[in-house]
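Researcher: Next sequence.
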Amino acid sequence: MLVMKKLNVHAMTTISLLIALMVILSQVFGFETQLIKITFDFIPEVVMASLFGPFWTGVGASIADIIGNTLLGKAPFFIGFTLNAFIGGWVYGFFFYKKSVTLKNAFFCVLVNTLVISLFLTPLWLSIMYGIPFTDEKLWAIRLMKAAVMLPIQTILIFFFGNAIPIRVIGKRFVS
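Model: Next structure:
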């Protein structure tokens, strides 16, 4: 069941700050080519997911995608990637909202996002955008290499930052 938490001004301000961090980590400090993008915007996204749940994290990730692409985008805007952002945010919220950030949760969250977004939806969008066949070996070699490298890196960083940031203390400010 989708639980949509009502937001107060403090919560909206915090979400806005996290969206800004996501834009900066994605567009300014990220690495991007036509077929691959490596960023660390998942760190503020995990904080948002822990504090506000799946719906608001999906919305926040979508807003970050639209703002980042509009202001600093290096590739043409494509709504499929905004859908990826919403789904990714929802997955983070599902795994981390009102839950401890364990190594197991972090791994399965990254695995789900990797399988659904990095290895299914993104190649689909790239094949639509650039006319690359969905079964193209070069596309899949790049996608699989990125997945193999980023799966352990993202898992460890989510576990580290999820436990280093006092999310429960911060979250008490948003309880009505």
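Model: The longest strand covers residues 31-32. Strands lie at 31-32, 37-38.
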